[in-house]
């Protein structure tokens, strides 16, 4: 199965995602470690792994919050498909797409009965990441999620700002 991938870059001061505005119910904020976020945006990692099921469906958008030391919103992607199974079954189906070695995959899912994967479809990286300090100017007391959360309405308004055109790049 091959997934068409497009990368977008916005030249705005405040990044805007391509396409129509993101309705709140179809967007989540996902905390991802820097090395995994880089693999997502390079196209090397095409499935994000989780130990818990997320409230998304294919077509949902995921805003990527890159954890410390970056601590910023770096981009987003569209959920292409969802996977769930026992960890060993999930590895057999999508292991190399996860960007992890088999040993790292096993360590991450150690003790888990179920494993979840989020297929990464169309993705885009913001030309200028939105740092935590700037997020807190728009949403006082904003705390990045430990795993994931719904996106606060003020952050959606920030990302859906007017007058920002995004250019797309196909790899």
What does this structure look like?
- By secondary structure, the protein is an alpha+beta fold.
- It has five helices and eight strands, in the order E-E-H-E-E-E-H-H-E-H-E-H-E.
- Strands 1, 2, 3, 4, 5, 6, 7 and 8 form an eight-stranded mixed beta sheet that branches.
Layout of helices and strands, plus pairs?
Layout: E1 6-10, E2 27-32, H1 34-42, E3 47-50, E4 61-66, E5 72-85, H2 87-94, H3 102-108, E6 115-131, H4 132-138, E7 148-150, H5 153-159, E8 166-170
Parallel strand pairs: 1-6, 2-4
Antiparallel strand pairs: 1-8, 2-7, 3-6, 4-5, 5-6
Which features does this protein show?
alpha+beta; disordered N terminus; 8-stranded mixed sheet; 171 residues; 22% helix; elongated; 5 helices
Brief digest:
This protein has 171 residues and is α+β, with helices and mostly antiparallel strands. The chain is built from five helices and eight strands, in the order ββαβββααβαβαβ. Strands 1, 2, 3, 4, 5, 6, 7 and 8 form an eight-stranded mixed β-sheet that branches.
Number of separate strands: 8
Task: Let me know the largest β-sheet.
Answer: 8 strands, mixed
Total helix count?
A: 5
Shape: elongated
Specify Rg, calculated over alpha carbons: 16 Å
State the helicity in percent bands. 10-25%
> How much strand?
35-45%
Please report the distance between the alpha carbons of the first and last residues: 17 Å
Q: Mean pLDDT, rounded to whole units? A: 82
